[in-house]
Design the sequence.
């Protein structure tokens, strides 16, 4: 039992890279819409707009004599306060916390400056449009977060508990482990549990993104968020409401933005340096022309400087880039791919090599006996009964395959001196004679002679010896997953090189690799051998993602740039340790995850290019006196809104 009988270390949690929080303005607190309605959010802007519109009417259309002096100033101040006060308050709080040059500070001095030179309508208009832009940004962020939460948090608040044989509706959070809950057809499961009914079909789309129903049998795990599709079922609760798999997934995705991408970190650091520079440049625009311009007017150059300040606000970059990454994480979640942070989206976009395990990753991990080859002098039925009895001592997939092939174990067979030999197989004494079941290394260790070249057999072999004689062997094969071939084809189309590493027989690994079109495949590998192979790839200065079952191969996952775990629904450890979790075991989600990373990065750089290009043009025009506050508003709020619309686009893409 080549791969199967080897003992591999348990995977230890992979330490996630951490990043210091941005020491400056963070949009999150200013973009919290709370429980406010759309009308409540826009009410200050509506009031400001009404007073501004009336003021402009009095000023330029009706030209009322009384609308002048302090009355005109007070009127525009009333128009300014609903939208301006929250921004000035944020600027003041930022200064208290040591961040002087925030975007709030820029907007504050630009609009207060406009008032100081008598440009009241423009001062109000700039702050009004800026505030409206902020509201739209807040709504976009809130919607993105709520979309992901709604996608994942599919649990009903109440469940039906069977108490003393009678159904009773109770709050899901109050149900104890071990209680029995009843799930009707069409109902959504509120807690993780074990199926007590003989069989049931479930829609698992909320957890995996997979529309095909999953059939569960008695004793199998069922998870919160699954929808019962047929008969009434009974489930024994195995985890508290807050400890359910869905709770962990939800918490992980909500915390995903804590892992910042390098691009995101750079932009935030850039904004921190960039903002004070433009403030000093604005000061220079105001004062320096005095020494070089003959007809210097302080008011004109101050106006240009104020326009320059409004244009220079880095809002479009600071909000649209995190939103773009959050959209990528949401797109992954919708397709059953859990991405633990925006840094992993960047890494996925640049992956050059995907190294994969064989069993359970590209194959089903469900073994079946293919052939039985015994020497003619042995009674096949008798030997198989003894082998089945011995293998019943193990929970190994190969033991399960033998049990499925032979049937129920014969409990009358007396096993003595049962021993598991790590990496080789099992040994026991039956009827005073020694029975060996395992790989051919086991037979070599006990000096059992055999006239058989097993190296060329492409299946996994189970060798059997009884009473110091070679009995024969069983061939056991795993089934290649339906979408495994398509996965390799898509990875090649993305320009990603594939390699297969496995502890299984080299002949078996080579055969599977040949069927899938994987050029480099290596078998008979111990965990340290896999590490050495991965080091060889990394020595070429190429990025590597390793795909495995998430609960072993810890050294390889730790060494890889991105660790991808298959079968997130099977093990809590996968959620805790892997960088990417593919929930439905489909390898085709690997190229999909890479594509999501590439599309996210493309959108982020589109936003960066758009923001810099528009701002650069309008900054030059503003400094030259060719752009007014209105162009400045477009450069700031308009570009921010365009960037946000581009960022949320990824959540509607089909991959």
Sequence:
């Amino acid at each position: 039992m080549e791969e199967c009988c080897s003992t591999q270390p348990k995977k230890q949690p992979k330490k996630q890279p951490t990043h210091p929080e941005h020491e400056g303005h963070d949009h999150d607190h200013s973009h919290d819409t709370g429980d406010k309605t759309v009308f409540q959010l826009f009410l200050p802007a509506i009031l400001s707009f009404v007073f501004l519109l009336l003021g402009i009417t009095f000023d330029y259309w009706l030209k009322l004599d009384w609308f002048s002096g302090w009355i005109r100033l007070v009127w525009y101040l009333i128009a300014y306060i609903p939208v301006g006060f929250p921004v000035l308050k944020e600027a003041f709080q930022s200064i208290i916390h040591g961040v002087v040059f925030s975007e709030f500070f820029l907007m504050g001095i630009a609009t207060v400056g406009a008032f100081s030179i008598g440009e009241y309508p423009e001062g109000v208009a700039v702050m009004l449009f800026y505030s409206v832009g902020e509201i739209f940004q807040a709504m976009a962020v809130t919607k993105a977060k709520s979309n992901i939460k709604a996608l994942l948090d599919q649990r009903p608040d109440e469940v039906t508990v069977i108490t003393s044989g009678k159904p009773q509706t109770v709050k899901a959070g109050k149900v104890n482990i071990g209680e029995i809950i009843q799930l009707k057809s069409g109902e959504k499961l509120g807690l993780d549990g074990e199926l007590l009914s003989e069989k049931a079909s479930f829609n698992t789309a909320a957890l995996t993104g997979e529309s095909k129903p999953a059939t569960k049998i008695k004793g199998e795990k069922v998870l919160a968020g699954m929808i019962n599709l047929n008969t009434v079922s009974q489930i024994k609760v195995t985890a508290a409401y807050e400890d359910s798999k869905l709770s962990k997934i939800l918490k992980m995705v909500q915390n995903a933005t804590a892992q910042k991408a390098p691009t995101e970190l750079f932009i935030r650091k850039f904004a921190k340096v960039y903002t004070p520079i433009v403030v000093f440049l604005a000061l220079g625009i105001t004062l320096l022309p005095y020494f070089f311009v003959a007809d210097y007017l302080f008011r004109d150059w101050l106006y240009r400087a104020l326009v320059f300040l409004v244009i220079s606000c880095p809002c479009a970059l600071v909000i649209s880039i995190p939103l773009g990454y959050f959209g990528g994480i949401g797109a992954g979640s919708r397709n059953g791919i859990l991405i633990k942070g925006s840094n992993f989206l960047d890494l996925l976009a640049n992956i050059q090599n995907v190294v994969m395990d064989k069993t359970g990753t590209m194959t089903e991990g469900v073994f079946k006996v293919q052939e039985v080859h015994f020497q003619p002098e042995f009674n096949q039925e008798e030997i198989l009964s003894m082998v089945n009895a011995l293998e019943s001592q193990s929970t190994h997939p190969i033991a399960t395959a033998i049990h499925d092939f032979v049937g129920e174990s014969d409990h009358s067979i007396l096993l003595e001196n049962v021993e598991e030999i790590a990496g080789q197989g099992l040994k026991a004494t039956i009827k005073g004679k020694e029975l060996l079941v395992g790989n051919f290394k086991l037979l070599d260790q006990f000096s059992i002679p055999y006239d058989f070249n097993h190296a060329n057999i492409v299946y996994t072999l189970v060798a059997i010896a009884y009473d110091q004689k070679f009995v024969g062997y069983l061939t056991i094969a795993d089934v290649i997953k339906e979408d495994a071939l398509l996965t390799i084809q898509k990875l090649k189309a993305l320009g990603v090189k594939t390699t297969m590493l496995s502890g299984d027989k080299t002949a078996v690994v080579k055969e599977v690799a040949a069927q899938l079109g994987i050029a480099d495949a290596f078998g008979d590998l111990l965990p340290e051998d896999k590490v050495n192979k991965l080091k060889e790839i990394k020595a070429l200065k190429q990025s590597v993602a390793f795909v495995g079952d998430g609960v072993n191969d810890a050294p390889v996952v730790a060494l890889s740039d991105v660790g991808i775990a298959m079968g997130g629904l099977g093990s809590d450890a996968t959620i805790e340790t892997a960088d990417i979790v593919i929930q439905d075991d489909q390898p085709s989600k690997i190229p999909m995850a890479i594509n999501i990373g590439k599309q996210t990065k493309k959108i982020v750089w589109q936003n960066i290019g758009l923001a810099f290009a528009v701002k650069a043009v309008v900054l030059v025009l503003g400094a030259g006196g060719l752009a007014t506050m209105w162009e400045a508003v477009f450069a700031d709020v308009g570009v921010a809104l365009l960037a946000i619309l581009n960022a949320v686009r990824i959540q509607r893409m089909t991959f």
Q: What stands out?
A: The two ends are 39 Å apart (CA to CA). Residues 1-31 have pLDDT under 50 and may be disordered. The longest helix spans residues 589-623.
